[in-house]
Amino acid sequence: MSGVARTHLGEHLPLIASGKVRELYELSKSTLLFVATDRISAYDVVMENTVDQKGAILTQLSVFWFKILPSKIPELQTHFISAGLPSALKQRLPSALVTQLEPRSMVVKKLEVVPIESIVRGYVTGSAWSSYQKDGSVCGIPLQPGLRESQRLDQPLWTPSTKAEVGGKDENISPEEAANLLGKDLARHIEDLSLEVYKKASAYALERGIIIADTKLEFGLDHSTLPPSIFLVDEVLTPDSSRFWSVEKYEVGRSQESFDKQYLRDWLVHTSKKGENGITMPDAIVADTLDRYKEAYQILVGKKWENQ
Question: Helix (H, G, I), strand (E, B), or coil: what is residue 296?
Answer without folding.
Answer: helix
